[in-house]
Amino acid sequence: MPVSTPGGGSAARGQRRSVIQDHIALAEIELCGELMIAASAAEERLSLARIDEVLSRAAGELDGVPESSR
Description:
This protein is mainly alpha-helical. Helix content is 67%, strand content 0%. It has a domain at 23-69. It has helices at 11-41, 48-63.
């Protein structure tokens, strides 16, 4: 039986939301890391096109990783 929380929701629902947010945060950290790597390897400032390329490639790699191993 779910446990009530002060906000009126259930503890189980809160934990599920937290897990989802953790996956989102980890994905954002991965994308940020990829951008930092690209920026440190570049001799000049990254163009918007290069930023889009890095983020698209990194997001594509994350799509191929099962949620349980992220």
